[in-house]
Amino acid sequence: MEKINLDENAKKLLEEKFGMRDELLSDYATKDGDSIRKNDYIPRLFRRQFIRDCEVVINLPLFNRYAGKTQVFSLKNNDDISTRAYHVQLVSRIARTIGSALSLNCDLIEAIALAHDLGHCPFGHLGEKLLDNVAKNYGYRFFHHVQGARYLNNIVKSDISLQVVDGVLCHNGEKVLQRYAPNENSCKSFEELQDKLDIAYSGKLNDDNLMASTLEGCLVRIADVIAYIGKDRQDAEKLKQVGFDAYDDNSLGKYNHDIIGNVSADIINNSIGKNHIAMSDFVYAELRRLLDDNYKKIYTGENIDGYTKEELQKIIDEVFHLLYDDLKKDGKLIDKYYRPYIYPNAMKVDEYFLENSSYPERVAIDMIASMTDRYLLEFHKRFFKTIF
Residue 193 sits in which domain range? Predict the structure, then answer.
């Protein structure tokens, strides 16, 4: 079938529509014409640069696996508890709401938000620490924001724009700032991005070098925090682990929707018409207080049903060594259980394996990171028959 093109009337109307929309963007917003790619991409009029990135992200295998990955609470028999899939959509909605008020590029915001947690491994931040323990034995480090950028740039090689990959690398929502703005350390090219990834693999990338190159990326970073603080409390209350009244201070609101609304309004008040994303002194201090309270009451607890941290470390260790030894030998397991599910473009997958032929530890870690919670457990049981 031949490609269906827009007729002249539709083209004219869309050109006028998008032209008016672009004129309404802030002077500090990222324009579609600013998109930086490794390969030339001529967008269709209705499928603009960053819309294309959104569509690429939602068609990636790891986007589909968000639904099987832990947000905070793992293996709970409760369908109302957040998964990573819910979280990224909430981040996207919060960031686009604020971004619309600030006249930023909401297509870019959506693409970064939907992609920002692609690097998360099974069992959330606990799994991240356990996988990092394995990586350190090989002089390598594992961080989910670095892995997300690696996945887009070095594994599937999806030709997503630099602004999106950079936003994923720089989203680190565990470090909250009062003010976010692109700076001299922000990535300006794919070469700079790769340099940062290489440094990050050795654990030497300083957080000061992780500021997004766009205001849209900066906004997603703080929206990540807004999205999880209240929702994690809501989930803890549903599981009857921590009630809403157990927290030290509810100055930004007791419930999730109150926190989202109040912090969003404060960011708009302090950022509109400016070249940065910022919060007032009061809201910044209170947001930090809420986050500290969450760490004390939620994040330091045992949030995985049926397994201890030590048992999960053993599972990850054993699966890693199984895959690492397979790669050093003939790669039959990798070829059966990993290679066909990385990306539909076999040529890109071949490039990935060729480039990492001297780094079997990275490929083994990439495979584990790509697994959902239950698949990791099932994969381990298939080869080790271990019952805890």
Answer: 50-299
Same domain, 244 and 141: yes
Is 12 domain-assigned? no
> In whole angstroms, what is the distance from residue 84 CA to residue 116 CA?
11
pLDDT of residue 246: 82
242 & 324 share domain? no
Q: Are residues 374 and 272 in the same domain?
A: no
* Cα–Cα distance, 190 to 331 (Å, whole number): 31
> Whole-model pTM?
0.95
Q: Same domain for 66 and 152? A: yes
**Contact status, residue 262 vs residue 287, Cβ threshold 8 Å:** no
Instruction: For residue 96, give the amino acid letter.
Output: R
- Domain tally, the chain: 2
Residue 105 half-sphere exposure toward CB, CA atoms < 13 A: 28
Cα separation of the two ends of the chain: 55
For 82-119, write each residue's pLDDT tens digit.
999 999 999 999 999 999 999 999 999 999 999 999 99
Assess whether 95 and 230 both reside in one domain: yes
Is the domain of 69 the same as that of 112? yes
- On whether residue 99 sits in a domain, the answer given is yes
User: Quick one: pLDDT at residue 1?
Assistant: 74
Residue ranges of the chain with pLDDT lower than 70?
173-174, 301-303, 386-388
Q: How far apart are CA 204 and CA 201, in angstroms?
A: 8
86 and 205: one domain?
yes
pLDDT at 86: 94
